[in-house]
Amino acid sequence: MMTPVYILSASAISPQNTFDGDGIYETLITSDNLKLFVKEPDYRSYINPVAIRRMSRLIKRGISCGMKALSDAGIKTPDAIITGTGLGSMTDTERFLKDMIALREEALNPTFFIQSTYNSVNGWISLQTQSTGYNQTYVNRGLSTEMSLLDAQLFLQETSEAATVLVGTFDEMTDDYFVVKNKIDYWKKESIPSNEILKHNDTPGTIGGEGAAFFVLANRATKAIAILKGIKMLQQPTSEIIAQEAIQLLQEHGVTWDEIDVVIMGNSGDSRFESLYSNALDCLSANTSLLAFKHLTGEYPTATSFAIWLSIQLFNNQRIPKNTLLQQGTATHYRNILILNHYPLNTASVLLLQEPA
Amino acid sequence: MEDLKQALKQQIIESLNLQGMKPEDIDDNAPLFGEGLGLDSIDSLELMVLLERNYGIKIEDAREGRKVLSSVQSMAEYIQEHKKA
Questions:
Q1: A224 domain-assigned
Q2: What residue numbers bound the domain in which B26 lies?
Q3: Domain holding A345: CATH number?
Q4: pLDDT tens-digit map of A103-133
Q5: Which residues of A touch B41 (CB under 8 A)?
Q6: Contact flag B53-A103 (C-beta cutoff 8 Å)
Q7: Do A111 and B46 touch (CB under 8 A)?
């Protein structure tokens, strides 16, 4: 069983105003072309101006998001940096591969190659923070977020002294990536506005998305804004298996279904996955509010991290953003949140978060 | 030679994405690394690629490369001497 870890801060760069705007309570940003790209903030406040010139947007996004999470937690140098990404920097990878073909594998720019590696963001953050401790990047497609959180939890569990870990995720969508995934039916064939995607759940596919989210985790409760109680990772999930794992997760942490105040679901309007959560939802009481988020972010491998960020907003504000609400429950205080998410075509996860006492 | 140096400065700015900088901001003899423009080791690799792509010049010897890439003037002289017809 996973030992609970404490979340000290959270930051997210997403297609919504999550980084430096008004949050997601007021404005809903939509798209009509099946793609939700992030709202890029001004990165110059977070990155060395000499270094920023050669960075692609994903690298800038990851570093800025990570530096903001550290700043919000009042941490200058974390003891470890652990990230997860499904794709890494697609822009740099595509540039490098296209140059390889065009230039017949000669005179290739080193920058694109260096930044196409998955751990570039970690490297830059460790340079900026002078963090020479444990540094790891997980590339496990739809479970990259969960793997990085699990590793952070193990790191914190094994450290007897007070320690902090910067955990983050980042993924980007490019036009070429969208075209490739379209060929294997990731996206809707018909044009649907992003804010209506959940209603169009009778056809396969969803909308593409991207984002980054970073958290500072600690093994001490001081100044915690949330507690990550446990994670379950699933391969080839079915509705029955997701429900079983959720039941087990709650039992392990002594939480009953009645005590779940909010469920945040990763349903995305894709008919192939609409029933994935039905068995788990059958266990819920009238207490629980149901929320969705993929109409705000689109689908991407590390979308679970957005759901975690959203959970922390609920703990902090004790208010549900109206644009996320599917069904209002009777609970008026949000203490226990269950996240049910999946990534096409074969992974899912269940996470339990709790408001600190 | 002057045209070559002007073109080279423009190519350096574009290739290294030196935002807000114009060719006239780069002195012909100012060191490109350390002081001067403050470029780093990755930039030196980018400049090697620039010479190969734009002028067909490949520098194999690192010591020679260090000398060639010391300033715009030294780069231009080397290009003039070695540029393939």
A1: no
A2: 2-82
A3: 3.40.47.10
A4: 888 888 888 998 899 999 999 999 999 999 9
A5: none
A6: yes
A7: yes
A13 and A64 housed in the same domain: yes
Identify whether residues A67 and A186 lie together within a single domain. yes
Structural domain harbouring A88? 5-218
How much is the ipTM here?
0.76
Same domain, A157 and A202: yes
A218, A237, A261 - which closes a domain: A218
Does B17 sit within 8 Å of A54, measured CB to CB? yes
A125 in a domain, yes or no?
yes
pLDDT tens digits for range A217-262: 999 999 999 999 999 999 999 999 999 999 999 999 999 999 999 9
Query: Into how many domains does chain A fold?
Result: 2
Total domains, chain B = 1
pLDDT of A30 strictly over 80: yes
Interface test with B, best of A47, A50, A109, A117 (most B CBs within 10 A): A109
Q: Do B52 and A107 touch (CB under 8 A)?
A: yes
A348: in domain: yes
Separation of alpha carbons B47 and B45, rounded Å:
5
Q: What pLDDT sits at residue A345? A: 84
pLDDT tens-digit map of A136-146: 999 999 999 99
Residue B54 belongs to a domain with what CATH number?
1.10.1200.10
Chain A CB within 8 Å of residue B56 CB:
no
Instruction: Tell me the chain B residues in contact with residue A50 when contact means C-beta distances shorter than 8 Å.
Output: 38
Distance from CA of B81 to the nearest CA of A (A): 20
* A170 falls within a domain: yes
* pLDDT the model gives residue B84: 62
